[in-house]
Every structure is written in structure tokens, then in C-alpha cells.
Amino acid sequence: MIEKIITLLFLLGSSAYLYSAQELxxxxxxAPKSGFLPYLAGSAAVLLSLLLLAKQVRSRDTVxxxxxxxxxxxxxxxxxxxxxxxxxxxxxLPSTFILLFYLLKVTDTSGWVTPLLIAGISSVACYLVFGxxxxxxxx
Length: 139
Prior knowledge:
Distance between the termini: 45 Å
Number of helices: 5
Largest sheet: none
Number of domains: 2
Order of helices and strands: HHHHH
Low-confidence stretches: none
Shape: flat
């Protein structure tokens, strides 16, 4: 029952988002305007939530909820707060590397080499794409 309520809330939120997106200019496929992507995202969210709701209504299975382990969630929130705190002082690249490495270790990625490589490659790739290629000013 709770999953149906959550899906209905998501459908309601997606519908409100789609309604708000209609205020922006859509444009055409060859010349999209500011409302193009929000309209597509809202339409996809409404469609997916309708499909999920239909699947849940047809299903007779009940989902059993296990007791949630909140420790990982709390550690992730602590990591994000720490990231926000250090971002302006040490810069984008090192703080993003630290955050990604921390999140990978909190979520039980095995070993030390794999999280270091993933965090390093992801941080540098984001920096190159946004900082260099797209020329987005990063902190």
C-alpha cells in the first residue's frame, strides 16, 4: 500500500512539474528553447509513474519492508555537508576527489585502489568536461 501512495505522490509531483514546464517556450526539435528539456523530463516522469502505478495495481504481491540501516545515510549526509564546507576553500578538484572517495568507501566498495581510481578518474573527467571543454567556472 505504501508503494502505491509514494507512486501517487511522485505522479502528482511530476504532473505539477509538467504543468509548470508548459510556461516555458518549447521551440521545435531542430531549434529547442528553454522549455524543451523540462517538458520531455516531466512527460517521461509522468509516463513512468503511470506505468509503475499500473504495475502495482495489477500485482497482488505485497512488499515486505526490512528495517532500514540509517548509518550509511547519515554518513553520506555528513560527507555532503563536509564537501560543501571545504569546496570553496580547497577548490573543486580536490574536494570532489575526497567526496567521491569517501562515498565509495562508505558504500562498501572493496579495496583501496578501486575507489582511488574511480574517484580520481571521475573528478578529473568532470573537471575536463565542465572546467575546460564547456568553460563553466568551477569553485
